[in-house]
């Protein structure tokens, strides 16, 4: 794509020049009214040019304003990265935990005398007591378990490649030279000369205002153009952050549930996946933030080039 002035910038230039030309007409109108006051003529709004031209020889001096206007060639820049997608599936997780149960055991034997018709005898009988026994108890829970997959995603945006084109605006600036006055008007010569000087001063001031308006007007449009690109990047950044935040939150919730139930065998694996997820998150945001910073630096160069302070 060839370099071209952004239509909004061109429209700004055209509008500023049109305002300047309107201002010149207002200066002439004001001068004509003052001439009529001095010469005691009735003001005629339809004879502004005639009034001025009958009093002054109006000579036009062509003035050229050369202005560096940025031209844009939009180059598509792509950022490619992996985004997590999470699906929660019901999973049964089982593990062994140490537990105790009470078992009755013979802890000692005591002598007991028993008698019957045949006679008496002594026997040793057990004393039974509850005794704790440690064993491995199988535990099982069913829970929503995160399953991750990384989906390749491409973020593309139009990055402006900027060059400057010198635009020349030519203006025909009027200069007012008092004509030879008739005898009746010679008494007003000083007043009419002052009116001519005042009009030339106003024309010069209008030109300075136009110069300043060119700088600020183009600067405002440049800000709009760059803001649009920045907004696209920040919107994409927010969407990406939401996906990562959702995946990280689900991972942390699963780890917390496992720890609360002492199902720690799965925890190291999930914590490793979580660490990688966070690192990927940081990498993606760093890439987008670097693009935004580069865009800001480019805008600053443009602003400095057109003379905005």
Descriptive notes:
It is built from 4 helices and 2 strands; from the N terminus they run ααββαα. The chain has 309 residues and is α+β, with helices and mostly antiparallel strands. It has one domain. A two-stranded antiparallel ribbon has the order 1-2. It is rod-shaped. 12% of the residues are buried.
Mean pLDDT: 82
Percent helix, as a range, is 40-55%
Number of domains: 1
β-strand percent reads 35-45%
The dominant shape is: rod-shaped
SSE pattern, N- to C-terminal: HHEEHH
Q: Would you count the extended β strands for me?
A: 2
Order of adjacent strands in the largest pleated sheet: 1-2
Radius of gyration using CA atoms only: 46 Å
Poorly predicted ranges? none
The major pleated sheet works out as:
2 strands, antiparallel
Structural class: alpha+beta
Q: Tell me the span between the first and last alpha carbons.
A: 31 Å
The helix tally amounts to 4
């Amino acid at each position: 794509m060839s370099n071209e002035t952004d239509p909004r910038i061109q429209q700004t230039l055209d509008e500023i020049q049109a305002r300047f030309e309107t201002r010149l007409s207002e200066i002439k109108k004001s001068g004509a009214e003052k001439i009529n006051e001095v010469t005691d003529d009735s003001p005629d709004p339809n004879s502004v040019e005639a009034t001025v031209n009958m009093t002054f020889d109006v000579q036009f001096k062509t003035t050229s304003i050369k202005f560096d206007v940025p031209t844009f060639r939009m180059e598509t820049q792509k950022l490619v990265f992996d985004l997590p997608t999470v699906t929660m599936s019901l999973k049964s997780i089982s593990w062994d935990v140490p537990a105790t149960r009470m078992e009755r055991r013979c802890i000692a034997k005591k002598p007991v005398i028993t008698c019957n018709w045949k006679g008496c005898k002594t026997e040793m009988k057990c004393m039974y007591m509850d005794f704790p026994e440690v064993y491995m108890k199988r535990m099982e829970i069913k829970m929503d378990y995160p399953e991750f997959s990384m989906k390749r995603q491409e973020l593309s945006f139009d990055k402006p490649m900027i060059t400057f084109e010198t635009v020349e605006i030519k203006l025909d600036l009027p200069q007012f030279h008092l004509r030879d006055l008739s005898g009746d008007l010679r008494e007003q010569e000083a007043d009419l000369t002052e009116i001519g000087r005042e009009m030339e001063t106003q024309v010069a001031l209008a030109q300075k205002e136009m110069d300043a308006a060119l700088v600020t007007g183009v600067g405002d449009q440049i800000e709009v153009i760059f803001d649009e690109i920045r907004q696209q990047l920040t919107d994409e950044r927010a969407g990406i952050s939401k996906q990562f935040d959702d995946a990280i939150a689900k991972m942390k919730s699963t780890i917390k549930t496992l720890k609360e139930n002492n199902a720690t065998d799965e925890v190291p694996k999930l914590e490793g996946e979580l660490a990688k997820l966070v690192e990927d998150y940081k990498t993606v945001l760093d890439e987008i933030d670097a693009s935004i910073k580069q865009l800001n630096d480019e805008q600053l160069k443009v602003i400095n080039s057109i003379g905005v302070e």
